[in-house]
């Protein structure tokens, strides 16, 4: 049955993967004539929601949207606007409106359990949700392994977004099924081996929560030569330390009314009600909409208690807890043998398992492991508002379609909803900086706004790196909003990988940069970006410029030899020099690198930081090299940020000319001179800006509206 609205959306064809011997061919792909619960791999993934949004990404990473209705009726004037700009104008995004919720989980669980029939529904099986939409080419396979509920709908709130980038199969374990943990491992293993044989170059993702996480670890141990990536949410490996463990002997002897109550299970599922309310407020909903949403959530929880009773009746709950105990012991005894890349997701308010502490233990025990912490969430992480699994995967750079992670070609641009969340988190900083954007047209005329930036790539932005990189957020956000152009920044390797654990900020601190398209700086990545006609942001001064010393503001600290000119010429890229001013209106360095290196224990600390990550220019002179550190900055009353993008410099047709080292160096020095001119222009013109001071801008916005654009100097 395939239905729209709140009804369950499954087709009638199964990926049959039962605990029976496979056919002689070893192929687990089903006969389309079988009638059970899921979409087969041979079927086309479709949805029937009216006005469905189809997303595509241009070759330069520009996000595009097209509605089916518009394809039939013509594109409206509104839809010709930048989709990111449109998203900021909405109180609630299209994604939020179409995303399923806790009520849908209960409804579809009820329908799925009913379809099992009185006999318990047979052995475990795979199904593929119909609302997973059409996928990207060469999408990896994602196998979802459920927790103790066993329904397989734990990702229901993420099916639509995951289905755009993965081929999703979910494991369903019928309520009355009593398959042992080791047999479940064999079932999943059989599927993994079959799919790996069918598509050996396609990675397979195992997403498991609690019991499912133990299952994923066990399969990874038994198949070290298969390309697996594990995403583990609140793993059940901590069962022996949980408050559930003592319940096993009690459940068999105490009266039903004293057994683990459903209300307790529900409280652990829903997390913190106050946080749920705040999530709705942060989405920009009105007080009435927030209250209505909370009432619906409470109604869903109270109305579907009986559904949960059907999912976990007394005997099934006891069986699942015993299975979790054996699964935990099995996985823990083999952690040393796990070689798969792993992403751990842990909740700070998990009332069933000590997931926060367990995450720290597993992070140390697993060799290729990253961790993301959700401090305000409960045990059933994927069923809570405010958690988007696709965004987490993007932020961790955990998505790949081949054997190795490719930061350029595996990258998926942010959706308008993701961009809106990033804007909301930086709203105060954007208001404080009130950025002024200037650009240069082809005829040399300087204009307000970004009209002078070339639309078609490849484009290489070369400029001054402000103190601590403060200029990045306003620049990248404004270019995406005004021009629908995503800047792919070349970033320091410490944002992506570490040689060892230590005192550097956690990798999760840089998730937003990766979502917005940052890649590790390297010649290979620059080649790939320019070859794909991207708009690339490169700072020749790098970390040395961003962590400059006292008195070095607005000084370009570039290496002597050209690093990017011949690469730009190879692809005919336009080079856009730019300058940024305003750092000296926000802070003053009072304790720089030279000062810190005079203190022995601080010097040792800085050296230890630099040993945790790869360096970028180890072979160059010390003038452009920089140990990782943070200068101490004394804040000032905020001023304003100013950006000036100079006239694009053409390199197309100059490849032969620029092969000569002297000619390339001459163009390199020309670009450097243009950046210095941009800096000098901004420093001079800002003196005549009547709204350079924050108080002046606040006074203007108090009479014109706080969302109004504040004027600046005349050109």
UniProtKB/TrEMBL annotation:
<feature type="region of interest" description="Disordered">
    <location>
        <begin position="20"/>
        <end position="101"/>
    </location>
</feature>
<dbReference type="GO" id="GO:0016020">
    <property type="term" value="C:membrane"/>
</dbReference>
<dbReference type="InterPro" id="IPR022742">
    <property type="entry name" value="Hydrolase_4"/>
</dbReference>
<dbReference type="InterPro" id="IPR029058">
    <property type="entry name" value="AB_hydrolase_fold"/>
</dbReference>
<protein>
    <submittedName>
        <fullName>Acyltransferase-like protein</fullName>
    </submittedName>
</protein>
<dbReference type="GO" id="GO:0019432">
    <property type="term" value="P:triglyceride biosynthetic process"/>
</dbReference>
<dbReference type="GO" id="GO:0004144">
    <property type="term" value="F:diacylglycerol O-acyltransferase activity"/>
</dbReference>
<keyword id="KW-0808">Transferase</keyword>
<dbReference type="Pfam" id="PF12146">
    <property type="entry name" value="Hydrolase_4"/>
</dbReference>
<feature type="compositionally biased region" description="Polar residues">
    <location>
        <begin position="20"/>
        <end position="50"/>
    </location>
</feature>
<feature type="compositionally biased region" description="Basic and acidic residues">
    <location>
        <begin position="51"/>
        <end position="101"/>
    </location>
</feature>
<dbReference type="Pfam" id="PF03982">
    <property type="entry name" value="DAGAT"/>
</dbReference>
<dbReference type="InterPro" id="IPR007130">
    <property type="entry name" value="DAGAT"/>
</dbReference>
<comment type="similarity">
    <text>Belongs to the diacylglycerol acyltransferase family.</text>
</comment>
<keyword id="KW-0012">Acyltransferase</keyword>
<feature type="domain" description="Serine aminopeptidase S33">
    <location>
        <begin position="180"/>
        <end position="384"/>
    </location>
</feature>
């Amino acid at each position: 049955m395939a239905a729209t609205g709140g009804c369950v959306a499954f087709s009638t064809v199964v990926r049959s993967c039962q605990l029976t011997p496979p056919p002689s061919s070893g192929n687990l792909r089903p006969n389309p004539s079988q009638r059970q619960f899921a979409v087969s791999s041979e079927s086309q993934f479709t949805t029937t929601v009216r006005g469905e949004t189809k997303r595509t990404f241009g070759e330069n990473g520009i996000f595009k949207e097209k509605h089916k209705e518009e394809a039939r009726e013509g594109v409206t004037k509104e839809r010709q606007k930048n989709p990111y700009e449109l998203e900021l104008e909405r109180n609630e995004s299209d994604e939020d409106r179409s995303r399923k919720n806790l009520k849908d989980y209960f409804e579809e669980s009820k329908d799925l359990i009913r379809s099992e029939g009185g006999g318990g529904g047979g052995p475990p099986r795979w199904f593929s949700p119909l609302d997973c939409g059409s996928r990207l080419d060469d999408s990896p396979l994602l196998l979802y392994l459920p927790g103790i509920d066993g329904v397989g709908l734990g990702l229901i709130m993420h099916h639509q977004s995951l289905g755009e980038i993965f081929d999703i199969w979910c494991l369903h374990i019928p309520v009355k099924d009593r398959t042992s943990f080791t047999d479940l491992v064999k079932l999943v293993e059989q599927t993994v081996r079959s799919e790996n044989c069918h598509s050996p170059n396609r990675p397979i993702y195992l997403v498991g929560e609690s019991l499912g996480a133990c299952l994923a670890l066990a399969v990874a141990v038994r198949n070290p030569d298969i390309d697996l990536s594990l995403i583990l949410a609140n793993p059940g490996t901590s069962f022996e330390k949980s408050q559930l463990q003592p319940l096993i002997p009690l459940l068999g002897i105490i009266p039903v009314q004293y057994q683990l109550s459903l209300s307790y299970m529900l409280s652990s599922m829903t997390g913190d009600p106050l946080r749920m309310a705040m999530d709705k407020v942060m989405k920009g909903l009105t007080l009435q909409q927030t209250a209505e949403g909370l009432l619906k959530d409470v109604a869903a929880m109270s109305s579907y208690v009986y559904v949960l009773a059907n999912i976990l009746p007394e005997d099934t709950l006891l069986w699942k807890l015993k299975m979790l105990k054996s699964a935990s012991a099995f996985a823990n005894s083999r952690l040393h043998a796990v070689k798969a890349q792993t992403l751990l997701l842990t909740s700070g308010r998990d009332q069933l398992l000590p997931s926060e502490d367990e995450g720290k233990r597993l992070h140390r025990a697993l060799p290729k492991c990253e961790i993301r912490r959700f401090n305000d969430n409960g045990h059933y992480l994927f069923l809570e508002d405010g958690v988007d699994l696709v965004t987490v995967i993007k932020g961790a750079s955990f998505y790949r379609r081949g054997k190795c992670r490719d930061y350029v070609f595996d990258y998926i641009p942010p959706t308008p909803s993701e961009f809106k969340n990033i804007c909301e988190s930086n709203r105060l900083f954007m208001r404080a900086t009130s950025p002024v954007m200037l650009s240069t047209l082809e005829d040399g005329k300087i204009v307000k706004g970004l009209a002078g930036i070339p639309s078609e790539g490849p484009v290489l932005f070369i400029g001054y790196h402000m103190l601590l990189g403060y200029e990045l957020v306003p620049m990248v956000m404004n270019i995406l909003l005004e021009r629908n152009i995503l800047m792919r920044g070349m970033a320091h390797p410490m944002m992506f990988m570490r040689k060892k654990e230590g005192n550097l900020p956690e990798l999760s601190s840089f998730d937003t940069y990766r979502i917005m398209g940052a890649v590790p700086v390297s010649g290979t990545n620059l080649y790939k970006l320019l070859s794909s006609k991207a708009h690339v942001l490169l700072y020749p001064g790098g970390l040395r410029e961003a962590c400059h010393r006292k008195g070095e503001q607005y000084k370009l600290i570039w290496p002597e030899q050209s690093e990017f000119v011949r690469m730009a010429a190879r692809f005919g890229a336009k080079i856009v020099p730019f300058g940024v001013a305003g750092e000296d209106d926000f802070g003053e360095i009072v304790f720089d690198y030279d000062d810190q290196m005079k203190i022995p224990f601080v010097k040792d600390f800085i050296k230890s930081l630099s040993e945790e990550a790869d360096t970028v220019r180890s072979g160059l002179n010390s003038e452009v090299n920089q140990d990782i550190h943070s200068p101490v900055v004394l804040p000032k009353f905020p001023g304003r940020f100013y950006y000036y993008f100079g006239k694009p410099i053409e390199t197309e047709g100059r490849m032969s000319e620029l092969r000569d080292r002297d000619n390339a160096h001459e163009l390199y020095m020309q670009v450097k001179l243009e950046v210095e001119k941009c800096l000098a222009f901004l420093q001079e013109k800002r003196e005549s800006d009547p709204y350079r001071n924050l108080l002046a801008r606040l006074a203007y916005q108090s009479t014109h509206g706080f969302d109004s654009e504040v004027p600046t100097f005349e050109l």
